[in-house]
């Protein structure tokens, strides 16, 4: 015998949810940020020292000082003096397109020097290598000069004959060379040479091989 199972009815329970409380947000106190001022760097350009600020140990002398001191651009071009002014022997000779100048020493340097001074405003410079009794007086391998013109001789002739740039630029000599006295002072980038026979001063600037003639005695 199997008894019929009695199934108890399920309780019909209605669950009432508990009310939930919604939290009210509490505003946080705001704090003004502390600003740190930014650093602004200030850059100051330091210019290169001008030539006037440089200390030259040797000053230009005589009439050279008057030419040098009145013109800052010339000071920049020549730089500081490298020697005292030195009296030397010299010679000059005029050409169709310029002049040749010889000095027996380059101030304190015992080296004879020849300048080919061109009418273009530039110059060429050569060491005087002519040796009396060894080199010929007349230039070798040069055609005869045209009428009214001369070929240079001795040191001028050797430099003129051996250097086509000087020969082609100067042309023929207009007359014979003549001796004179001179004063020479060396600079970092050039020379000043006073020519007694002209009572004028040549300024030779190495940069650009430029020259100019000043009506200034020594």
% residues in beta strands = 15-25%
Instruction: Give the total of beta strands.
Output: 8
How big is the Rg?
A: 47 Å
Number of discrete helical segments: 4
Number of domains: 1
End-to-end gap: 159 Å
Overall mean confidence score, pLDDT: 85
Q: Tell me, what's the shape?
A: elongated
Structural class of the helices, strands and pairings? alpha+beta
Taken in chain order, the helices and strands follow as HHEEEEHHEEEE
Which strands sit side by side, in order, in the main sheet?
A: 4-3-2-1-5-6-7-8
Helix content: 10-25%
Main sheet record? 8 strands, antiparallel
Poorly predicted regions are 6-11, 32-44
Task: Walk me through this protein's architecture.
The longest helix has 9 residues, at 154-162. With 218 residues, the chain is α+β, with helices and mostly antiparallel strands. A hairpin with a 4-residue loop joins strand 6 and strand 7. Helix 3 (154-162) packs across helix 4. Strands 4-3-2-1-5-6-7-8 form an eight-stranded antiparallel β-sheet, with helices on one face. It has four helices and eight strands, in the order ααββββααββββ.
Brief descriptors of the model:
218 residues, alpha+beta, eight-stranded antiparallel β-sheet, 4 helices, 8 strands, 14% helix, 25% strand
Secondary structure topology:
Blueprint: H1 62-69, H2 72-78, E1 86-95, E2 98-103, E3 113-118, E4 123-127, H3 154-162, H4 164-170, E5 178-187, E6 190-195, E7 200-205, E8 210-214
Antiparallel strand pairs: 1-2, 1-5, 2-3, 3-4, 5-6, 6-7, 7-8
Helix pairs in contact: 3-4
Short précis:
By secondary structure, this protein is an alpha+beta fold.
